[in-house]
Design goal:
The complex is a heterodimer of chains A (287) and B (291). Chain A is built from 14 helices and no strands. With 287 residues, chain A is an all-alpha fold. Chain A folds into 2 domains: 63 residues, no CATH class; 212 residues, MetI-like (MetI-like fold, Orthogonal Bundle), CATH 1.10.3720.10. The radius of gyration of chain A is 24 Å and the shape is globular. Chain B has 291 residues and is mostly helical. In chain B, α3 packs parallel to α6, α4 crosses α6 and α11 packs antiparallel against α12. The longest helix of chain B has 33 residues. Classes of the chains: A mainly alpha (287), B mainly alpha (291). Chains A and B meet through α1, α2, α4, α5 and α6 of A and α1, α3, α4, α5 and α6 of B.
């Protein structure tokens, strides 16, 4: 909304608001050379025959789809994809429900209860503890609890998102007038109904931000699967790329086909939801 | 703020306490355990004894550990400065009156979406094959070897890090620039204020809060650098590109230094906290002054 207001404002301006072609040209050239070229290269190598690698950047003489089939089999793609999808989807759903619920209870009771105020600062200060700092003992503990698998790591993701998400949701909930909840209580709703029927739907924009950030985190995360998921049947797509890197060795075409298989879902989602994603990430950081 | 009177509805406890307990068990407890083990000689299994500050002494004197701290700081400082300068320039370009603004914005944000590990692998290929090929064809000896195998390997890692981090930082600066009212510039131009002065006297003070966000997040992220290093050099050649995170991972899990690396992790934690607090203090003070 800000933007449309500004662009109409710009149109009303005078000569200086003509299109700046120099800057446009520079930005287009830089985008092609530095962002699109490496992506183009990834696609081209993934499609090429090994004998066609003399001029790496040329379009393939004939497209070798078998690269994908071979990479698919070699890395056990369907299994790794299922694992990653499970972690990602379950994490997003449960993060949204449980973290918003906790943030709601904390935000609404901070002013009248020391316990909830303490919990707020507890979660917020935990943002300062990077994963690398607690991973050594965590791995020991996770294997003792039998959490070194897909389900276990999903639970950990949901819990580890709490500090950031409490911060994000809390900022949003503060802006929701309590009058709405009071009206619902007068109508006979209990706290759970108030939350799920009144508050939860209002928080949609923040759910979108949290969902995008959680999704990006789990889909692209490498360190946590690396230290927790040693059983090949439990591994994620990112981890599989690392594990199979040695086996690909100089079979670049297979390696790049495999990378592309992992990047493709993200690229497709980005093409369709870029506006949401960009605004979601912005509001997540600028809040 | 009263919703149900002075007494807190028990439902609110149910909404928070169970997940808070889980958080304590799986986040706070491992952290505290790490602090505890840092004062022992535990190897990750078997018996252990208290050893006092021995592990910390080791951390501060072992050349591999101190080397990794020096490298990580050098890397984090270089990356923070370069990423913030470049992303601010990029954001100003994207915020000016250009064609294809939304398309360009989407393209420049794309690297944020892609996993760091795979980006690292792709650039591995570029550094190992494309750049040397280019260097040989044009007779530039500096480019004709794989930089990741040389003493300058860290520059390769720096390039990849910048390539990916620009996306997020640019987005934040862009959000900041869009809050600046164009009328201010028009007024400044009428007063004959030059471009450079306009930037330092008007633009920068107005987007200072966004600068703070970027600085804090950048430094923290770069101090933790892990994925791109595992993908590109594995910490080598030798230990030249071993960051603190890589060292904790390698020595802690495979090198039998569980307790020593726990101490290292505690030191890393303190470093991150102290740097974040100093940054917030200094940058917020400057914000106040500028406004």
């Amino acid at each position: 909304m800000e933007l449309t207001k500004k662009s109409t404002h710009l149109k009303l301006g005078k000569a200086k608001h003509q299109v700046n072609w120099t800057v446009t040209a520079i930005l287009v050239v830089l985008a092609i050379c530095f962002i699109l070229a490496p992506i183009y290269m990834t696609v081209v190598i993934a499609l090429k025959d090994p004998s066609d690698m003399v001029n790496v950047l040329s379009w393939p003489k004939h497209i070798r789809w078998e690269n994908f089939a071979e990479a698919w089999k070699m890395t056990d793609f369907p299994l790794k994809f299922r694992n990653t999808l499970f972690i990602t989807v379950v994490n997003v759903i449960f993060t949204i429900i449980t973290n918003s619920l906790a943030a709601y209870a904390i935000t609404r009771n901070r002013k009248r209860s020391k316990l909830f105020n303490l919990l707020y600062y507890y979660f917020i200060s935990a943002m300062f503890i990077p994963f690398n700092v607690l991973m050594l003992p965590l791995v020991k503990q996770a294997s003792a609890f039998h959490m070194d698998n897909v389900l276990g790591i999903t639970v950990l993701y949901i819990i580890f998102g709490l500090p950031m998400n409490t911060f994000l949701y809390s900022g949003f909930i503060k802006g929701i007038p309590t009058a709405l909840e009071e009206a619902a209580i007068i109508d006979g709703a209990n706290s759970w109904q108030v939350f799920f029927k009144v508050i939860f739907p209002i928080m949609k924009p923040m759910h979108a931000t949290v969902a995008i950030l959680s999704f990006m985190w789990t889909w692209n995360d490498f360190l946590m699967p690396l230290v927790l998921l040693s059983d090949p049947n439990q591994q994620t797509l990112q981890l599989a790329q690392y594990v199979f890197q040695g086996q690909f060795s100089t079979q670049y075409n297979l390696a790049f086909a495999s990378y592309l298989l992992v990047l493709l879902p993200i690229l497709i989602i980005y093409v369709f939801f870029q506006k949401w994603i960009i605004s979601g990430v912005t509001s997540g950081a600028v809040k | 703020m009263k919703i149900t009177g002075k007494k807190i509805n028990p439902a609110f406890y149910l909404m928070t306490i169970p997940i808070a307990i889980l958080f304590f068990i799986f986040h706070t407890l491992p952290f505290l355990k790490g602090v505890f083990y840092s004062f022992t000689d535990w190897q990750g299994y078997g018996n252990w004894n208290f050893v006092g500050l021995k592990n910390y002494l080791y951390v501060f004197t072992d050349p591999d550990v101190t080397g990794s701290y020096i490298f990580t700081f050098k890397f984090a400082i270089a990356a923070t400065i370069l990423v913030n300068v470049l992303s601010l320039l990029l954001a100003m370009g994207l915020n000016s009156k250009i064609k294809f603004q939304n398309t360009l914005k989407s393209i420049y944000f794309l690297p944020y979406m892609l996993g760091t590990l795979i980006i690292g692998f792709v650039f591995n290929f570029i550094f190992a094959n494309l750049v040397p090929q280019f260097g040989k064809t044009f007779g530039i000896s500096a480019l004709s070897t794989n930089i990741l195998g040389t003493d300058h390997a860290w520059i390769g890692i720096l390039i990849v890090t910048i390539w990916q981090s620009l996306a997020f930082n640019t987005l934040i600066y862009l959000a900041g620039l869009q809050t600046v009212d164009h009328e201010i510039y028009e007024a400044a131009e009428m007063d004959g204020v030059g471009t450079i002065k306009k930037f330092f006297k008007i633009t920068f003070p107005l987007i200072a809060p966004f600068f703070t966000i970027n600085m804090v997040l950048s430094v923290k992220g770069f101090l933790m650098a892990f994925d791109q290093i595992m993908a590109m050099t594995g910490g080598g050649p030798g230990n030249l590109t071993t960051t603190i995170s890589v060292l904790i991972y390698k020595r802690g899990f495979q090198g039998g230094q569980f307790a020593v690396q726990s101490a290292n992790a505690v030191v890393l934690f303190l470093v991150v906290v102290i740097i974040s607090i100093i940054q917030l203090r200094v940058l917020e003070k400057r914000e106040e002054k500028l406004n």
